[in-house]
C-alpha cells in the first residue's frame, strides 16, 4: 500500500479514537459521576485498555504474515465493539448500584471496583485501539535506518487525526447529533479504514514476517529508554492536568474550553513527532538526544510558568489583538491562543520523544512491532501513574505551584541521567544545564504564582484552597461583603446574595403541606439551606461536590446561621446525580442550586433522565425544584429546559428570585399550585415568617409576587420541540455560544473579566446585558390569581385580593446589575 494512503488511514483512525474517548467519558460520567476521582478512574480505565492492547500486540505483531490485513481486522473489530459500547454505558446503572451496595462503605475497594466496572466495558475496544500502532508499524517501516521516520510519522499522523476528532466531537458532532450518533459515525470511519486495509493487505513487507527470530532479551539501553519513556508519560499527563486547572481562571470551565485545551495539547505533540521523525534516523546518539529533549521539556515548562505570571496583562492584549471578543469565534480563538502560548513549546518537545524512542529501542527490523508496542505500552502506563499521582497525591500535598516544580525537576533529572548514560562528557554539560534550570525554577517561579492571579482580580483572599476537585476562595470587599469564588469562574454566592438564596429555599418548601425529609444538592455558602431549616423538617440530606466549599462555610455564618451544625443536616461530599442513583431513600422535596448551564458537567443535572431519577425518589406528593439563571441562559434554551421538565412532571410552576435574574422550576406528579391556606399556615411558623421578613418578604402577598407561571402557561412558554437528554444534552453547547452567558468565558462573578471587550465601544456591557435580559424575562410573568387555590382564605374579595397582589409586585425591585448582586445561588 502506498505510504500516503497508509497515513490517511491512520489519521482517520486517530480521529475516530478521540471521538470515542469524548463520547465514552461523557457517558460514563452519567453513572460514575463527574467527581475528579470518578473521571480520573474512567480515564485510567481507557488508557489501561490502550496499554494492554499495545502490550499484547507487541507479542504477536512481528509474527503476523499479513500485518496490513491484520490491522484492517483490528480496525473492524474496533468498529464492531464501538457500536455496542454506548448501549452498554447507557445501561450501566444497575451494575454501579450493585457495586455501591456491596463495597461502597470501603473507599479503596469501591474505587477499585469502579475502575474494574469501567475497564470491563472499555477493555475490548480500547485494547483493539492500542494494538493498531505496533501492527501498522510493520507495514510502514521497511528499513532499519528508517525506523524513526516511519514510526514517528505514523504516530504524528495518528495524533493529528486525534486533534481533528477532538475538535469534531467537541464542536460539531456531539453538539449537533448527540453521543450515540457521534459514536456511530466514528465506528463507520473505523469500518471503512478496516475494509480498505484488509482488502489491500495481501502480503507482508520486505524483511518481516517469516524470518522473525525467536524472542530475545532486551538490551539494557532499550529497557532504560522504555523506563524513561514511561517517566516522560508520567510528567506529560501531570502537566496536562495542572495546565487544565491553571488555565481555568482565563478560559473558564465550559465544554469548549476543555476541548480547545486538549486539542492544543495533541496538536503540539503531533507536530513535534512529525518534525522529529525526519531527523531521528540521522541522530547518532538517540539516547543523548532524548536526554536533551527531556531537559528542554523541563526548561519549557519553567518558561511557561514565568509567562503565566504575566497572563493578567497578556490575555487582554491577546483579546485586543484579535479585534475584541465580539463573537463566539473570537472567544474560541482566544482560548486556543492562551493554551498555545503556554503549551505549544512543551508539547512539541513531547512529540519529538516518540521517534527518538523508536529509533533507540528497535535494534532489528524483525522485532519492530514488539519493541514499539512495548514502548507505547510503557508510556501509557506512565501516563496512568501520572494522572493518579498528580491528581490525588502531589496536588493535594504540594499545591499547584510546587507540583509543577516537582514535575519540572523530574524532567530535568531524567534528561541529565539519560545524557550522562549516553555520553559522559557531553552528558556532564547537559547535567550542569539541568542543575542551572532547576535552581532557576526553584528560585524564580513565584511561591504564590496561582493564588496571585486571583489577588490581582479580587484583592485580599480570606480563604484559598487548592484541592483535588477545584480551587475555592473567599473574598471580602471594602464594604465587608463576602463571596465564595471558584477558579473556573462559575457563579458564586455570598453575604450579598442572601435575599436571593433564601427565597430559592422557600419556593419549594412553601408549596408542600408537610415537608419532613429534604434533599438539598449543591451547598454553595448555605444561605438556601438555612431557610430550609426554618421549617419543621426531620432530616435534610445535603450533597456537595467540593470539600473546599464546606471548608469555606464558616466564613458565611452571618447568613448561613451555621446550618451544617444543625443535627438534622447530614452532609455527603458527592456528585448529586450519582448520589441519587445509588440511594434507596425518598424525599418530600428535592431541590438543586447548580452553577450556570455553561459550566462543564452541570447539564447532567438538567436532562430528562435525571429528572426521571429525581421523580422516582420523591415521596407521594413530593416536589422537585431546580434553579436556573435566566439572565445567562438564552430564551430558546429556557424553553427547551421548560419542555424537558414538563415531559417528566405533569404539573410545573415557575417562580423567580427577588431581583428577577433567576427562575426556580418546581415540578410534581400531583398538582401543587400556590395554595393560600397552605401559605398562611407556613407563615404562621415564627421561624419561617422571620426568615422571609429578613429578606423583605413581609407577608403572603409578597411571597406570591414571586410567581412567574404555572400549568398550561409553562406548556405554552415551552412550545413544541426537542428535549434535553443524556444522549443529546444540547444546553451545554448552546449556552456558552451566547452573549447571554458572555460566551461562557467571562462574567460579573469574575469582576467582569474582559466583558468590556465583548463590545469595544461600551464600558457597561455586563450591566447592559443583565438589565436588558431581566426586562425581557419579566414579560413572561403571569398573574398568580388564576392559579391560586383557596383564594378566599385571606378574607378578601377578588378585586381586593388582586389589588393587594399588584401592590406587592410593585414593591419588588426590577433587578440589579452585575457586581451589585452576584448571580449564583447557594
Q: Explain this structure to me?
A:
Strand 2 and strand 3 form a beta hairpin. 59% of the residues are buried. It is built from 29 helices and twelve strands. By secondary structure, the chain is an alpha/beta fold. The C terminus is likely disordered. The strands form two sheets. Strands 7-6-5-8-9-11-10-12 form an eight-stranded mixed beta sheet, with helices on both faces. The protein has a four-stranded antiparallel beta sheet with strand order 1-2-3-4.
Largest sheet: 8 strands, mixed
Fraction in beta strands:
5-15%
In terms of per-residue confidence, which ranges show pLDDT below 50 for 5 or more consecutive residues?
Answer: 204-210, 817-826
Strand order in space, largest sheet: 7-6-5-8-9-11-10-12
Features:
single chain; four-stranded antiparallel β-sheet; 12 strands; elongated; 29 helices; eight-stranded mixed β-sheet; alpha/beta
Can you summarize this structure?
The chain has 826 residues and is of the alpha/beta class.
What's the topology here?
Elements: H1 3-32, H2 36-60, H3 67-90, H4 93-103, H5 107-140, H6 147-177, H7 179-200, H8 220-251, H9 255-280, H10 286-308, H11 311-321, H12 328-361, H13 368-422, H14 424-444, H15 449-458, E1 461-466, E2 471-476, E3 482-486, E4 493-494, H16 498-509, E5 517-521, H17 527-532, E6 539-544, H18 547-552, H19 557-560, E7 569-573, H20 576-582, E8 587-592, H21 608-615, E9 618-629, H22 635-648, E10 651-656, E11 662-668, H23 676-683, H24 686-694, H25 700-704, E12 707-710, H26 712-718, H27 731-734, H28 765-778, H29 798-811
Parallel strand pairs: 5-6, 5-8, 6-7, 8-9
Antiparallel strand pairs: 1-2, 2-3, 3-4, 9-11, 10-11, 10-12
